[in-house]
Amino acid sequence: MLKPLWMGAMLLLGAALAQEATVYRGFAELRQPLNLPPAEWVWEPSEVLFQSLVPGTLRMLGVAERSRQIESPAQPNVLAAYVGKEVQFYWEGEWRRAVLVSAEQNLYLYEGRYLVGLPGTVAYPDTSGFNPPGPRVVFRYQGAGAATLAYLTRGLTWSLHYTLDDGELVGWATLENRLGQTLRLGRVELVAGRVPLLAGVYGGLVSRPEARMLQAPPAADADEAAFVGEAAGTYRYRLLGDLVLGPGLTEVPFVRARVQPAYLWRLQAAFSAERELAFMRGFRFTAPENLAAGVVSVRQQEVFVGQASMGDTAKSYPVALLLGPDPEGRATRQVEQQARNRFRVTTRIRNPKAYPVEVEIQERMPQPFTLEGEGLERIPEGYRLRFTLPPGQSRTYSYTLTLLQR
Question: Is residue 34 within 8 Å of residue 14, measured between CB atoms?
Fold first, then answer.
């Protein structure tokens, strides 16, 4: 009896120590500090946690493992716990008594007769049959003392979104706990980027999306976050402070920074001889730190102006959030044909707004070609032009396009 009691005490002690989590998009690695007894320790995860484990990722760190015995008992017959016991059943207005003779055949002895099944409502004398043994993992190892149980689980994931509100950029992490129990985490890192994970779970069962828990969770205790670096093409953020994750969804901020968004008109298209060209509108700013890809909700002057997708962006690189056409974002164009294959193109852009607009134009020309014009950045596909247009002002630029014979 001493060994089971000792093992149970160690399990309770281990559960009291704060877990650590590294959360990816679609799964997480949990690390549980333990104080192990010598030689052997039994882990009894919940059925939900066990089914969410990623095979091949279970580890016991800090001791030299000799073997693991993974036990996933088959679902027992609930009636087996009541063979030879008296049960009651409610039939024709009164409670009656019978004795279960065979669980496999659902056979009962009632008033000297054997019945297959009982009519009405059946009441059992205790709950023993409804508490079947759960999965177990028996670890055998050399050593004892401080160790860490680590594993990957699909039951804890995160996604992210941003808000850009008059220059304040806030990144929000939405953590989803599908393990059916509250997690108390002492250290949490969020990993953004593409991290492949192959299919497979213990027991051959995959949790279905419709089984996800979406009830309101308790408030999280995390206090902002810090960017902790890049590793093998992924961005990592560490939440500051302890975090309590109830079942369901919990949202916490993981990035907060001031940026200087500039209003943007962008035109990226093939060469056009149309008299009017339309710009896409958006905002552009410099990434204050490494930013993971996500959807950004944009507000300007307390007005919601749209959502845009942002890709993974390194610190100090430009971020462009495109929000669709601007009715006022128009350029007028005149095309003068100077020869059969030679054209003089003049484009005028005017800013009717009360604030400056950053203008980006990139045109792709029919190949092969030559282009003559001042202030244009020549690129293999055509040209690129960037400038800032103050409120109420306009700018005109011209170039000569010659289409060459192939």
Answer: yes
* Greatest mean pLDDT among 6-15, 194-203, 361-370: 361-370
**Are the beta carbons of 349 and 395 closer than 8 angstroms?**
yes
pLDDT of 233 > 80? The answer is no
**From CA 161, how far away is CA 5, in angstroms rounded?**
47
Residue for token digits 């100090």? 316
Report how far apart, in Å, the C-alpha atoms of 294 and of each of 174, 198, 310 are. 12, 23, 5
| Rounded average pLDDT over 223-235 | 69
Give backbone dihedrals phi and psi of 121, rounded to 5 degrees, phi first. Answer: -90, 130
| Closest by Cα among 369, 367, 361 to 389 | 361
Count CB atoms within 10 A of the CB of residue 372. 12
Q: To which H or E segment does residue 269 belong?
A: strand 262-270
Helix, strand or coil for residue 214? coil
What is the pLDDT averaged over residues 337-341? Answer: 93
Express each pLDDT in 48-102 by its tens digit: 999 899 988 999 999 999 999 988 776 677 888 889 999 999 999 999 999 999 9
Establish whether the linkage from the previous residue to 368 is cis, with ω within 30° of 0: yes
Strand ranges inside 271-302, DSSP E = 276-286, 294-300
Percent over 90 (pLDDT), the chain: 66
Strand ranges inside 24-167, DSSP E: 28-36, 40-43, 59-61, 64-71, 86-91, 94-102, 107-110, 113-116, 121-123, 136-142, 145-153, 156-165
State the pTM of this model: 0.69
Residues with Cβ < 8 Å from 270, sequence gap 6 or more?
Answer: 363, 364
Q: 34: closest CA among 10, 19, 14, 16?
A: 14
The Cα-based distances of 121 to 115, 129, 155, 248 in angstroms read: 15, 17, 37, 35
Please report the pLDDT score of residue 200 as a whole number.
59
Instruction: Classify residue 199 by burial, with Cβ atoms within 10 Å: 0-12, 13-18, 19+.
Output: exposed
- In this structure, are residues 267 and 235 in contact, taking their beta carbons and an 8 Å threshold? no
